[in-house]
């Protein structure tokens, strides 16, 4: 709009429409710093244009040659030659020199990218600009296969946004096709070095369907692609195929896969292989998947291709139907991708089902490595739960065994809530013939409780330390009475640690004492300890949370010879010795319970150990038994 002054009244006169001007430098800056992750994508874009051009030519003439040659002998730059469909002068103006225009969308050039023609990799009409990230000048010489009589044309584009175009004399370009030459930018030459070019061409182009070669200045030729993909080649036997796939997995991912799973989703033209990781994978550090789009590598970090739970596989796939984002470095998240993810998940699940039915040795090896992943999955997947729960390994009083094996030996399966409780009760429970599963690890308790659904005859019950102590045999009243002085002393000592004392008989005989405690009780004691030390405000708050403070229990084993001896000599022995012995028993039970030690616990352990040493050295002194022995 332009304003004109007419008298004192301003009048606005409409002007003819203007066209946006594009600042190419600004655009290239935008692409290189914000769209692409690295300048290296320039080679991907060039190879992709060459592939698309050959595809377009083959739609006209299926027997047309399909060759892509990258030359690194161009004085610091590179040349990419293809035997593709080529361009006429008018094509050059319309497609090459117009940013955002592509010959690869529908015939009417519609902007609906989802309708971009399935045959081509490109669709956005910005790919060639990526070359300006590494080059100052791009020269395209092209001869059209569509209009064989049209003269060849040379287009010269510069990063300042200007371009020139000229037609070449008839006969100067022998065959239809296109040659693109890049003249490097001062800061882009490293990306055009011959070694780097081979590496990039292989990285992006390993699965391209047409033959790609890199030729250096000595005329040495390097093959870039090795087609057809390893999963599409014919093999003499299933074993040979399996070995070839495993070797490919090693080459791509640098690990020896535990197994390989074929992937085939015709709906999106997807084929490939899922490689099962041979070592445990961390659920939050998901492995990268390599996704090729019509042969071109789109991403080697595509986590979105497989469901979260399947973090124990890494895939290589080639697809025609998934959409790339504009940077062409990731998959566009849409319903198709979600459906593909589900389909791959289903395939992995089928593989697991197959193992359970026909290859138990491999299933065991798999579960040894990935049981955590399967446990995470089985909680939400009834089918898988039914299938795999019996095979999953758990820590139990019989060692680490499958749940099925364990349930066969113990029709009542007891499960603890915490690892700590398991550590406390496991030896005692095992000696008493009880079967206990450590339910303290993530998912385990939930899963064990599902067992009756899968194995109807089995009963599962929660177990806590109090239940164990309630099941221990009580001591007959006469023995309890005889031990009364010792128990009284023991109670006085244990009281200092907020602990009660009981005398019971239990196996194994070798365990003199056990400490029965649980986390809630310990928290409660800790809270009351804090509130006694806290200032008024905090004491009030902590006090209002208080319940009656539960106490731990030190259970002394009446079957144990040491306990019996201590009980017998309680009336006559040095009270100091009895006290130190009780402290030492408490300390040892504390260690057995594997609960975290507080500073006071450490002090107790030290004190009792040193105290006992002192008694021992006194006993071995000049009048002690050691001395007598030496004299005799
Ligand atoms: N080697 C080639 N042979 C023939 N035509 C080409 C060649 N390179 C580019 N073109 C033409 O130039 C157009 C623009 O190319 P450009 O790489 O910028 O975008 P595109 O490939 O269409 O889409 P995308 O941005 O998704 O790569 C193409 O649509 C094609 O018509």
Set out the fold topology.
Blueprint: E1 2-6, E2 9-13, H1 24-35, H2 41-60, E3 67-74, E4 77-82, H3 89-96, E5 135-143, E6 153-158, E7 163-167, E8 177-184, H4 194-205, E9 211-215, E10 221-223, H5 238-253, E11 260-265, E12 270-276, E13 290-293, E14 296-299, E15 313-319, H6 335-358, H7 360-378, H8 382-388, E16 393-396, E17 399-402, H9 403-409, E18 412-416, H10 419-431, E19 436-437, H11 444-454, E20 459-463, H12 465-470, E21 473-474, H13 477-482, H14 484-495, E22 499-505, E23 513-516, H15 519-533, H16 536-544, E24 552-557, H17 561-569, H18 575-593, H19 599-619, H20 625-631
Parallel strand pairs: 3-9, 13-15, 18-19, 18-20, 22-24
Antiparallel strand pairs: 1-2, 3-4, 4-8, 5-6, 5-8, 6-7, 9-10, 11-12, 12-15, 13-14, 16-17, 21-22, 23-24
This protein binds adenosine-5'-triphosphate (ATP).
Residues 45, 49-50, 53, 82, 84-87, 95-96, 102-104, 122-128, 178 line the site of adenosine-5'-triphosphate.
Detailed description of the structure:
The protein is an alpha+beta fold. It is 40% helix and 20% strand. Strand 6 and strand 7 (163-167) form a beta hairpin. Helix 14 packs across helix 17, helix 14 (484-495) packs across helix 18 (575-593) and helix 18 crosses helix 19 (599-619). The termini are far apart. Residues 1-9, 109-115 and 626-632 have low confidence and may be disordered. The structure holds adenosine-5'-triphosphate. Adenosine-5'-triphosphate is lined by residues 45, 49-50, 53, 82, 84-87, 95-96, 102-104, 122-128, 178. Pfam families: HATPase_c_3.
